[in-house]
Amino acid sequence: MRRVFLRVSYDGTAYHGWQALPNTVTVEGVLNDTLTKLTGSPVEVIGASRTDAGVHALGNVAVFDTDSTIPPERFSYALNTMLPDDISVVESFEVPPDFHPRKTDTYKTYEYTILNTKFPLPARRNYTWHLKADLDIDKMRAAASLLIGPHDFKGFCSAKTQVENTVRIIYSISVLKEGDEIKIRVKGNGFLYNMVRIIAGTLAAAGGAGKVTPEDIEKALRTGDRSLVGKTAPPQGLCLVEIEYPELEYEEP
Length: 253
Hints:
Blueprint: E1 2-10, H1 27-39, E2 46-47, E3 56-66, H2 75-80, E4 87-95, E5 107-115, E6 129-130, H3 137-145, E7 149-152, E8 167-178, E9 181-188, H4 195-209, H5 214-223, E10 238-244
Parallel strand pairs: 3-10, 5-6
Antiparallel strand pairs: 1-3, 1-4, 2-3, 5-9, 5-10, 7-8, 8-9
Helix pairs in contact: 3-4
């Protein structure tokens, strides 16, 4: 029995999130069904990040155990002949049998995209959050700088968060304007439920789409008061860019 690592890219528009659910089309469910057909044995993958409905990914991660004779590095090729066009396995290789994608030190990078135009552009509605307000990039960057480092992000997560420890480390956060789009890229050691979408909503509010001040952000970090920061940005603007595993740096072929 071998454990195989998959790096998965998908357009989340048509899916009710990552996590497999009964009678619901999800990315994990499609992977399970496809791997089961490919190997001839029941397969349930273990995913690294349970993205919400409408959220996209360039590099989510899953592992599964198999006694298939297919070489680990060939699973990506075989799966991509069977998967729908909005899901692709961009990499596959063998990892140690005890490797768990959610119980291993990681660096996660997310990107949130705001479409900052006077009117919505329907062709980009599934991949951006449209805001017509004039956004001050410098104010957004100043607000973002307050979030770097280890903080208790209790005030930046959904009430549905079911973890006791809400301390996370943000290593970097950038706010870039590219044409009519504003991209917020965040790298950290992990994120709470809806944390990146709340950060995006907070930075948008700090930049002119609301009334969040630097003092509000600092107080929210001290007190955990969710009401002090911005609203939860909609899911379609969010993309999981990459999950890095330092312990696998020299394991990959």
